[in-house]
Amino acid sequence: MFDIKLIRDNIDLVRNGLKAKNACANLESILEKDQKRRDLLVELDQLRSQINSANEEISQLIKAKEDPKPKIATMKEISNKISSLEPQAKKIEEELHSLLLMIPNLPHVSVPVGSAQENKVVRTWGKTRVFDFKPKTHIEIAEHLDIIDFKRATKITGSNFILFKKAGARLERALYNFMLDTHTSEHGYTEIFPPVLVNRESMIGTGQLPKMEEDMYRLKDEDLFLIPTAEVPVTNIHRDEILSEEELPIYYTAYTACFRREAGSYGKDTRGLIRVHQFDKVELVKFVKPETSYDELEKLVGNAEKIFQLLDLPYRVLLLATGDLSFAAAKCYDIEAFSPGVDKWLEVSSCSNFEDFQARRANIRFKGKETKKTTPVHTLNGSGIALARAVVAILENYQTKDGEVTIPDVLQPYMGGMKKISK
């Protein structure tokens, strides 16, 4: 939930932040509704106070054997007024709530202002592969080795779904097991295996709803959604909870299948693994104190980078500009792996700090050890990492001239000692 107090106290800051994100909201109208709501609440409190006073006076009149009827009549008038004002207050509260849900998070001051063209390359790692032959695309490699069946996946479900098979299926499993082991044993995350169906409240809590409902898969007969990322169920573990300061930071990692309709992306990268409607991902989620959240973001990016380093895949880290940030993010780094077959940098991880944006929507707070004050936590999440684009990077970077694919060293134990995928 966007902080209404911030709009009240610094409307220009909010207006400029929304402009930087290419978003807009009628802030004046929101403030008018907020003031009307506050006025109604003050009036209701005064009327309830009058009711309490009237009750006491009636008791005193009865004790004094005086006629309480005039006072009772006055109390009924006040009660009737309360009954007429309460629905008004509830209605305006719901309207204000709906308006605030549609306002995106503001960008952090360190984020470059502008569109995607202003994204900044922070660093690169590794050297792009140099081949003595023309590298094939992952589609050509997969079909040659018979490890992915795109046609039958389309027959089973529809376009942009995947059917891994043989060594391809094992490679997928090897990758997410390797990543889970790395994040739990080396980076201190607790493993979670959450549901892949969540309710509307969970989707609102992390910011997917109501703004992006058309991109989500929703069940016909129940108000449940297939998750677009494990960020949703894992962040909502602590919805409507007050954590203790001593519990923070909390690190969770989870492997799940993820589902995205991507309703506005038809015609973009529709072949192969680059843009699919179901994919596997290992997610990293953090709950931290506000004063540490940006240090925690840098560590989060480092955890995701470690996976690429262990896989020996060249990558670059981008700091996203304001116009390229997601609805909920205050700051975000993308990690892109280079895929020589398609000759592109492909986003394979996105690491974001949401500050208290999700925590306010999901009501996740912590109580200070000394102050005993409850404060919204800061939440972060990142892909650690996302498949199937990581599979694209492996197939295209590790391909050989004779059409085989060398298995990265760290994955060989997860592949039963297999060193190459051969036809």
Characterization of this structure:
- It contains twelve helices and 16 strands.
- It has two domains: 4-101, Serine-tRNA synthetase, tRNA binding domain (Helix Hairpins), CATH 1.10.287.40; 116-421, BirA Bifunctional Protein, domain 2 (2-Layer Sandwich), CATH 3.30.930.10.
- With 423 residues, it is an alpha+beta fold.
- Helices cover 39% and strands 20% of the residues.
Strand content: 15-25%
What characterizes the major β-sheet? Answer: 8 strands, mixed
Oligomer: single chain
**Computed Rg:** 27 Å
Helix amount, in percent? 25-40%
How many helix segments?
12
Shape verdict = elongated
- The overall strand count is 16
Q: Write out the CATH superfamily name of the largest domain.
A: Bira Bifunctional Protein, Domain 2
Specify the CATH class of the largest domain: Alpha Beta
Annotated CATH architecture of the largest domain: 2-Layer Sandwich
Taking pLDDT < 50 over at least 5 consecutive residues as the criterion, the unreliable ranges are none
Overview features:
423 residues, alpha+beta, Helix Hairpins, BirA Bifunctional Protein, domain 2, eight-stranded mixed beta sheet, three-stranded antiparallel beta sheet, 16 strands, 20% strand, elongated
Short description:
The protein has 423 residues and is of the alpha+beta class. The protein has 12 helices and 16 strands.
